[in-house]
Amino acid sequence: MTVTEETTTSGPGYKWVGTRPIRPDGLDKVTGKARFGADLALPGMLEGAVLRSPHAHARIVSIDTRAAAAMPGVKAIVTGADFPDPAELGGRPDEEMVAANIIARDKVLYEGHVVAAVAATSRKQAQRAAAAIEVEYQPLEHVLTVDEAMADDAPLLHPDLKTRGMDPAPEEPSNIASRISHERGDLDKGFAEADLVVERTFTTKPVHQGYIEPHAAVADAGENGRATIWCSSQGHFAMRTMTATVLGWEPSKLKVIPAEIGGGFGGKTVIYLEPLAVALSAKSGRPVRLVMDRDEVFRASGPTSGTKIRVKVGVTNDGQLTAAEAWMAYEAGAYPGSPVGAGGMTILAPYDIPNFSVEGFDVVVNKPKVAAYRAPGAPMAAFALESVLDELAAGIGMDPVELRLRNAAVEGTQASYGPKFPRIGFVETLEAIRDHDHYRAPLGPNQGRGVASGFWFNAGMNSSATVHVNEDGTMTVVVGTPDIGGSRASMGLMAAEEMGIDVAKIQSIVADTETVGFNDVTGGSRVTLATGAAVVEACRSIKADLRARAAKTWDCDIEEVEWVDGQAQHAGGGETPLSLQALARKSGRTGGPISATASLNARGVGAAFSTQVCDVEVDPETGEVTILRFTTAQDAGTAIHPSYVEGQMQGGVVQGIGWALNEEYIHDRDGRMENPGFLDYRIPVASDLPMIDTVVVEVPNPAHPYGVRGVGEVGIVPPLAAVANAIAAATGCRLVDLPMSPPRVLAAITGKADG
Fold first, then answer.
1. What are the pLDDT digits (tens) for 256-308?
2. Are residues 680 and 667 in the same domain?
3. Domain end call among 564, 580, 602
């Protein structure tokens, strides 16, 4: 189902944008022909293995590699001593942290922290040699939660870490890396005006993105001081920059070739193996492949943060929100960089609240450094706020959608984090859910319905694209943003719309770092918006070129030439139209090859909103929660390829349901993860879920040539709260700690009955 705001759609309608052609990379992927990160095999290639810390926090006393180096097949071993000191990488703290996370020097800061890596003629030989490396550790006290890390007597991960964002600046180090804040109005006055105030504290656990393909990299370092890397990532330009930093190389010395990617969701925007593979290749003189197993993925790559969030909100009896206060602490893992900043931006953004204060802390703990996970930071924030809004609505006897509608941000509302919203579609998502038959469907015993909304600001950033017209009149679109959610198709559709030719005549490819201009990562819901804008700009340059060539052919002014339906037409009708194919055939006589490149930093990013409704049934004897029905409404701006938009919406919901009900990192007292595999870390599968119903709302982004907003992130923001609100409706119990697993739900029900 699609709801479109016709009045703001540019043009009378599209021929290709909004259609559903077959995914261009689909055939190779379903037949097994597509090459992913671990699929490449080079002549003479060695296999790598990594030795990782068994401790959550320990000092490295010594590393002895002699026995391992003497083992059969071993060709190279690297330790932290083979890499530049992180403190000598230019003085940027973030670069130092990336380098220290790749391989430990004096201390290990989490179980799974790399201590050494080995390259041998087989993977088994490499693994045996890695296990034979002798490391002497001095175990240290560790902290695993924000409460432990923020305590006055907490052991310090980094003895020189002082909190940024504090006034005055602290003189003593701590585990609090930074503080963020947003505030407006008079908080005391706002709460005094409220008829009802609800305050609760919520916690979430670290959860993993759950991508199916583990991290993998192949590196081939030459004697000329250059190296080529093949890897699955969400941005091979970023992989090049970060790898060069860790190695102390110039980025120009590295060429990164993108493999296909078997899922990322933010978790493949960072490096783990690439510098190790390059160092081993340079030392051995042969190509080296490194592949994580699933245990390593869980123990040593970044999940998203565990959090503790306290929210206090006031409302009048007629449904006006008067004040909101939020205190947030996000686990960063072993090094600073949690998504608390995004959590602080998004927690109140859907609503027009006159008085508010948001304070957030980035806290280091002895766990893997966190990585982005689809709208990083926002789902945890929405879980807290949207749960409280549900309680407020019940407390004043108001429909929960109506409460949100009365306070919804609209065009001109100043967002809690600063800017004023342009045209946005939040109200439309609320109305779509309110008017959906799901919202009025009857419920049975032990069943409940929950509603929640969410916001993601989306990203623009840097993109480049090159468009070639081939000699037969077909076109090639060359981009540098890896295709995760169907961007090859969306680039082709926008190019087809611009050029007025069949989308089947356009091939979209993802090129390496030496073939196309710089591109930021595929993330932040930015690719269809930003890279798409670059493709459109390049196509418009080509159309201008084609008009000039037609004018030259006809010996007329370019102003007399129009480009309509894939061909040059003379405005006066005195010339026979020239098709793209005809102009391509004679390009050598009219100026040479037809090609254009566009590079830009995308502006006018369109904010994304989603509202969702969930029905659950709770077994009062076991605490098991069954999702009966789920509907999501989301403002896509314009759905370039509706099937992929719907897929992104459904995928976000499914991941959010898993986060709400089952998923969590479980650590023992020594900081070791106890469930590093998909048997014990439970993600939803198809049999766990109903079909996720989608309502695609289209309120075009006025700043994009085709109205794109970006759709990949916001779908995961509301489900945590929607499920929690449905459980509360079914049981009368408000759960505030995730996941809401059967034991926790049963304990809440039992506690209520006992009380």
1. 999 999 999 999 999 999 999 999 999 999 999 999 999 999 999 999 999 99
2. yes
3. 602
**Final residue of a structural domain among 564, 582, 602:** 602
Q: Which domain range does residue 9 map to?
A: 1-34+426-457+606-755
Same domain, 610 and 755: yes
In this predicted structure, what is the pLDDT of residue 87?
A: 85
- Asked if 430 and 464 sit in the same domain, the reply is no
Instruction: Evaluate whether residue 714 is within a structural domain.
Output: yes
Beta bridge partner(s), residue 737: 203
Burial 164-198, CB ≥16 within 10 A → b, else e: ebeeeeeeeebbbbbbbebebeebeebbebbebbb
Q: What is the pTM of this model?
A: 0.97
SS (H, E, C) 288-349: EEEECCHHHHHHHCCCCCCEEEEEEEEECCCCCEEEEEEEEEEEEECCCCCCHHHHHHHCCC
Tens of pLDDT, residues 31-62 = 999 999 999 999 999 999 999 999 999 999 99
CATH number at residue 750: 3.30.365.10
Q: How far apart are the first and last CA of the chain?
A: 45
What's the pLDDT at 244?
Answer: 96
The CA distances from residue 121 to 84, 227, 283, in Å, are 27, 20, 14
Residue 388 tokens, joined: 């409280």
**Dihedral angle over CA of 91, 97, 98, 103, nearest 10:** 110
Number of domains in the chain: 2
Please check the confidence at residue 11 and state whether its pLDDT lies above 70: no
User: Mind telling me the catalytic residues?
Assistant: 713
- Compute the average pLDDT of residues 74-101: 89
Are 513 and 449 contained in the same domain?
A: no
Structure tokens at 170: 């602290």
Mark whether 554 and 669 lie in a shared domain.
Answer: no
Q: Is 741 exposed, middle or buried (0-12, 13-18, 19+ CB in 10 A)?
A: buried
Which contiguous run of DSSP H or E holds residue 60?
A: strand 58-64
Helix, strand, coil percentages in the chain from 3-state DSSP, rounded to 5: 30, 25, 45
